[in-house]
């Protein structure tokens, strides 16, 4: 049975996390959280984590771990975290199938 992963990390995002973590001397663990706010109702928050916490859902890619807490997971289940470089800059982006709408900058969404 092929189950859809709860959350995914692309190879591009994993490479970027590994580079940032190495530069900061931290483990390669990226935490994705969802906060209220932003121009569309919810906003994504990224940061390096020191460890995986109890209740976290994890995704592994190329030696890098993506962690999401239980509350945030309900809003991002089935999503993929990518790192995209464009003329507008470089940023982590979430492809979220649960989002009913998003904002132009790609950092907030509504459900």
**Please, what is the CATH homologous superfamily?**
HesB-like domain
- The strand line-up of the biggest sheet is 4-5-2-3-9-8
Number of helices: 2
- Total beta-strand segments: 9
Largest sheet: 6 strands, mixed
Number of structural domains: 1
Average of the residue pLDDT scores: 88
Rg from Cα: 14 Å
Helical amount among residues, as a percent range?
10-25%
Low-confidence segments, ≥5 residues, pLDDT <50?
A: none
Q: Give the SSE order as H and E letters.
A: EHEEEEHEEEE
CATH topology name, in short, is Hypothetical Protein Aq_1857, Chain: A
Terminal CA distance reads 29 Å
Question: What labels describe this entry?
Answer:
alpha+beta; six-stranded mixed sheet; three-stranded mixed sheet; 9 strands; 19% helix
Question: Can you tell me about this structure?
Answer:
- The protein is α+β, with helices and mostly antiparallel strands.
- A hairpin with a 2-residue loop joins strand 6 (79-86) and strand 7.
- It is built from two helices and nine strands.
- It has one domain: HesB-like domain (Hypothetical Protein Aq_1857, Chain: A).
- The chain has a six-stranded mixed sheet. The protein has a three-stranded mixed sheet with strand order 1-6-7.
- The radius of gyration is 14 Å and the shape is globular.
- Helices cover 19% and strands 45% of the residues.
How are the elements arranged and paired?
Blueprint (H helix, E strand, L loop, with lengths): L6 E3 L1 H14 L4 E9 L3 E8 L8 E5 L2 E5 L1 H7 L2 E8 L2 E7 L5 E2 L5 E3 L1
Parallel strand pairs: 1-6, 2-5
Antiparallel strand pairs: 2-3, 3-9, 4-5, 6-7, 8-9
